[in-house]
User: Fold this.
Amino acid sequence: MAAQDRKFFQQGINMYVKAMQFAADMEGLEPQTFNLGTPAVQSNTKYQTAIAANAVANTVVALATVAIADSTYGRTLVYVPSGDPGNSNVVQVIGQDYLGQPMVENFTGASGSTAIVYGKKAFFRIISSKVITPSTNAVTYSIGTGFRLGLPYKGDLAYAREAGIQVPFYKRDTLLTTTVAAADVIAGMSIPFLAPFPGFVKNGFGAGAAGAAQSNALTVTLGGVAITGLSAAITNNGAGTVITSNPTTPGYNANNRFIANATIMGVLGANGSSTKADMVGVTLTPTQFTLPDLTDPATALTGDPRGTYEALQVYDGVSKIEAGLVGDNSVNASGNGGFLGIQHFGG
Assistant:
């Protein structure tokens, strides 16, 4: 097994190999266990805080000391605005991956929003941030640690261990459903769904029984806040057709993401004339394993070229996170890829 502590790679030395076909610790393309480190509890201000988002375009703010991620192969970042930027402002983070490969990622705030923006790329070194599009309001931003951990190679995960215990592993969308009795359809109720993994709500859905004189609105909430746009009108449709609604902003974002064991509430509005039961549910997309992004060439907005792992447990700085990885050394039609994935976009 090759050494897994990649911190000995000096800054400025790029160990990336285009279309790499062999690695000693992936020999035979069989599952191999990799130590992803003992990441600390998530922090919104780990690397930078109170940086002016309305600074002149192309203003670079360097960290006093280059920061090193607390995960062996890097960790994603979060961008946290202090308030409404007033426009779609853009901040770029500049750093390196665990190979010493230069990389950048753009984070875009939204007018009217104070939401955290979750990064996709696993940074090993964080060097600086740069205001690309200044905010029109005088707000600041912070750069902190995210929830997804970097992986050493492009491939697929076969298993995971957290704090020495093999954990359930989720890759596919999961439907959670329940039947609401007629009396509760009349009165309205909140239905708790417990998330078995970290991820995001893909949609909410429901169906009313044939012959029921009903019209209930199903909304889905996280932490007591409704997911924007996700409201399904469950009506008397005769044939029991399933009515589906999707979030206005889909995917892994501040209005939609959840951690493992989070409670997701399906709130069914009251209807005084219903005589039949409803079926309601949510579709959850896991982010425990994020597939490698095969976009070639990569951009400042694409995902990590080797994929990421998000633990079921809350990071505590002590528990070791391990992943069983099956490597993929395939290349695309342009001959790019291999074990180390597509080359990072470096700005």
Residues 1-8 have pLDDT under 50 and may be disordered.
